[in-house]
Structure formats: structure tokens, C-alpha cells
Design goal:
- By secondary structure, this protein is mostly beta strands.
- The chain contains two helices and eight strands, in the order βββαββββαβ.
- It has helices at residues 30-36, 95-100; strands spanning 2-14, 17-19, 25-29, 43-48, 54-62, 69-72, 84-94, 104-106.
- Strands 2-6-3-5-4-7-1-8 form an eight-stranded mixed sheet.
- The radius of gyration is 14 Å and the shape is globular.
- The mean pLDDT is 97.
Length: 115
């Protein structure tokens, strides 16, 4: 049996841009992605703390050290610049492995830099 568990999370990152006229996705600073063990095109869930919206999309690598967190395409309708979001990724693994697995959790500061 396989179960889906939390793989990694960027907790309380600030939305810096919202670009409606884009195909879709979330652009995230490469430093944050790397620290959380996330990769480009990985499916993620976004939870908006400000308005309660939840959505699924994929990641695009943003410029390293830029602090970028940009909601693209339809995702731009689910949040605004200044909103605080949580970016979550999950992994499927055997039950016994899941019991000992420890996710990577990143807590950026107010400028989306790693503390």
C-alpha cells in the first residue's frame, strides 16, 4: 500500500506578483524551491492564508535570491500581492517508509528570504 504524505512546504511566503496574462503556475525563488526540495514543474498545492483559497498548479523556477512569489494565469485570481500563502508538495510512498519520512519545511522571512 502507498499513501500520500507531506513532502515539503514553504510556510508563509508573501505573494510579490500576480500575472493574469500568463499560461498558469507559480513562479518561486529558486533558493526557496531548493531549500524545500522542490523542482520545476512539480505539482504543488497553494493555500492562501488571507482569503482561504486553495488551488493546485505547478512550479516555475524564479530568479535565485529575488524573493519572487508570483501567481500566474488563473492562479492570479486566487490571491493578491501582499497575500501570505503556503506552498505544499506531496509524495506517494510505501506505508512503512511514510511512517519514518520527515518533510522539509522552510520558513521564509517577510522578504521571502530563508531565515
Amino acid at each position: 500500500m502507498h499513501i500520500e504524505v507531506l513532502k515539503s512546504k514553504v510556510h508563509r511566503v508573501v505573494v510579490t506578483e500576480a500575472s493574469l496574462n500568463y499560461v498558469g503556475s507559480l513562479t518561486l525563488d529558486e533558493d526557496l524551491m531548493e531549500a524545500a526540495g522542490m523542482i520545476e514543474n512539480e505539482k504543488v498545492q497553494i493555500v492562501n492564508i488571507n482569503n482561504g483559497e486553495r488551488l493546485e498548479t505547478y512550479l516555475i523556477t524564479g530568479k535565485r535570491g529575488s524573493g519572487i512569489c508570483c501567481l500566474n494565469g488563473p492562479a492570479a485570481r486566487k490571491g493578491a500581492v501582499g497575500d501570505i500563502i503556503i506552498v505544499i508538495s506531496y509524495a506517494s510512498m510505501p506505508f512503512e517508509e511514510a511512517k519514518v519520512f520527515r518533510p522539509k519545511i522552510v520558513f521564509p522571512d517577510e522578504k521571502n528570504m530563508i531565515k
